[in-house]
């Protein structure tokens, strides 16, 4: 069984949904490794709590649990780097799907619906190739009614042809979409780190500070080998 952790990162220009596929045999080990990353940070910086969440935005900007070291950007990026390294050290796979939001307006479809359909289809194809099944676990959306909408979408894709890129019926993803608060799951936090960084790289302007561009690229290099599919649809 593959645990398929899903998170999103978006702006006015593009909408990305990312899946981190973790074999059930790897889940506990990866959780422990990410706990260790945070514990190491608490030893180095007493103001960081052992329960601190590994969020991409907070680590980059020095917000939330990482505000106590806001003036220590190298320290925060170091934590980000170590977290990505331990993720890549495990037998995981990353699948990324996106859509250009502005072009989608002419199609009268919501960007999240499109990107999620494409992502689930890619995950289903990957699971079929592995002769395995997947259980989807997503970060809790901001609005409660969105959970019901996303679950209904998956059920429709399981019953009839998908709205995905190849319009295949979803057969390898079992049950429904399960939602978990990021505070309760290091693996939800793990996919958040990947989704945020990927979106940041794709939307960083060419005029951005060269040091920031190099730092982003160096971080992405840590996880690149685990990415099996990455595509942004241009309607």
Write a compact overview of the structure shown:
By secondary structure, this protein is of the alpha/beta class.
List the defining traits of the structure above.
235 residues; alpha/beta; Nucleotidyltransferase, domain 5; six-stranded mixed beta sheet; 8 helices
Question: What number of structural domains do the residues give?
Answer: 1
Strand order of the largest sheet: 5-4-1-2-3-6
Helix content: 40-55%
How far is the N terminus from the C terminus?
Answer: 34 Å
**Helix count, DSSP H or I runs of 4 or more residues:** 8
CATH topology: Nucleotidyltransferase, domain 5
Task: Give the second-level CATH assignment, the architecture.
Answer: 2-Layer Sandwich
CATH class: Alpha Beta
Radius of gyration: 18 Å
Q: Determine the strand fraction and express it as a percent band.
A: 15-25%
Enumerate the spans where pLDDT stays under 50 for 5 or more consecutive residues: none
Q: Which superfamily, in CATH terms, is the homologous superfamily?
A: Ribonuclease H-like superfamily/Ribonuclease H
Main beta-sheet strand count, sense and barrel state: 6 strands, mixed
Whole-number mean pLDDT: 92
One letter per element, helices H and strands E, the order comes to EEHHHEHHEHEHHE
Helix/strand class: alpha/beta
> What spatial form do the alpha-carbon principal axes imply?
globular
Number of strands: 6
């Amino acid at each position: 069984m593959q645990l398929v952790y899903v998170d999103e990162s978006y702006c006015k220009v593009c909408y990305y949904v990312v899946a981190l596929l973790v074999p059930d045999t790897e889940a506990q080990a990866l959780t422990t490794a990410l706990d260790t990353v945070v514990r190491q940070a608490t030893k180095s910086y007493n103001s960081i709590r052992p329960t601190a969440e590994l969020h991409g935005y907070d680590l980059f900007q020095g917000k939330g649990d990482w505000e106590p070291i806001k003036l220590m950007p190298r320290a925060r990026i170091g934590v980000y780097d170590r977290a990505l390294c331990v993720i890549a050290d495990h037998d995981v796979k990353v699948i990324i799907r996106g859509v250009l939001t502005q072009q989608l307006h002419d199609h009268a479809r919501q960007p999240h619906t499109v990107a999620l359909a494409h992502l689930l289809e890619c995950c289903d194809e990957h699971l079929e190739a592995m002769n395995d099944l997947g259980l989807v676990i997503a970060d809790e959306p901001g609005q409660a009614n969105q959970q019901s909408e996303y679950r209904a979408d998956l059920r429709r894709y399981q019953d009839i042809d998908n709205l995905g890129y190849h319009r295949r019926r979803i057969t390898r993803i079992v049950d429904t979409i399960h939602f978990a608060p990021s505070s309760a799951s290091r693996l939800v936090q793990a996919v958040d780190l990947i989704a945020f960084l990927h979106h940041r790289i794709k939307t960083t302007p060419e005029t951005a500070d060269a040091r920031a561009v190099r730092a982003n690229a160096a971080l992405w290099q840590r996880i690149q080998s685990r990415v099996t599919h990455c595509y942004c649809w241009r309607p």
